[in-house]
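S.,

As promised, the 2-phosphoglycolic acid run. Input:
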Amino acid sequence: MRTPFIAGNWKMNLSDNETVEFIKDISHKFENRNNIEIAICPPFTSLKSALDIIEEEMIKNESFKIMVGAQNMYFKESGAYTGEVSPGMLKSIGIKYVIIGHSERRELFGETDESVNNKIKAAFKHKIKPILCVGESLKIREEGNAVSHTLNQIKKDLQGISKEEAGSLTIAYEPIWAIGTGKNATPQDANEMCKAIRDQIKEIYGKEISENLTIQYGGSVKPSNIKELMAMPDIDGALVGGASIKVDDFLAIINY
Ligand code: PGA
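Predicted complex:
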C-alpha cells in the first residue's frame, strides 16, 4: 500500500517571515484526515526557519507533521561553485527531500538529464530523498511523443541508480503545459502517463520497486481537482505549486 504524498513547491515565493507565519497558520488549522505524507519546499533562505518553526508547532499540536524539502541543489560536495548549495549543506540542517529536475530548472537554468542524474546520485548518497520531475512540453504532446519523451527522461535521469536507492525515489509527472497555466491534465491522461512511468520503473527495477514507487502528478493542482486526481490508481500524490502558498488551498488539498 503506497502512502499518499503531497508536496508544496513554493518556487521563488515567501520571505523568511512569511514562511514562519504560513507554517504557524497551517499548524493552527491543521488536520490530516487522509493520513498522508506532507512536505513543503520553501526557498533556501527559509529552510532553516521552516524546520525550526515546524518543530515548535509539533510540540503544541501532536497531529501536526510536515517535512521540509529543498527545490534544488548542486551535486558537488563543496568548492568554487558560486551561488550553489550542496547536498551536505541541506543534510546538515535536516532536509529530507529535494526536488530535482523541475521543468523550470530545465527550461530556464539549463538543467540537463546529465546534471539531473548527477544530482539524483548525490541526493541518494546523502540520504536525501529526491522528487524527480519529468514531463513533456505542449509541442511534444501535440507531436504525439509525450510518453516516449517522459520515459526517456526517466531512463537518462536514473542511470546508475541502484534498486535499493530507487526504493526511496518519488517521481513527479508534470506536463509543462499544465504548470501555472490553470490547465490541468485530465485525471485519465495524467494516470495514463503515471502508469507508463510505473511500467518503465518495473522494466528497470522489477515489480516490487515499481509497485511501491510514489508517483505524483503536478500542474495546476487545486482544491477543485485534487480529489479526482487522487482517485486514479497510479497517482499517489501531487506536487503543488501556486496553490501550495495559500494556506486554505493547501489545507483543502491535503484533506482532499
Ligand atoms: P502549479 O505548479 O501547481 O502552479 O501549476 C506545479 C509545479 O511547478 O510544481
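The pocket of 2-phosphoglycolic acid is lined by residues 9, 174, 179-180, 218-221, 239-243 (CB under 6 Å). The chain has one domain: 5-254.

- D.
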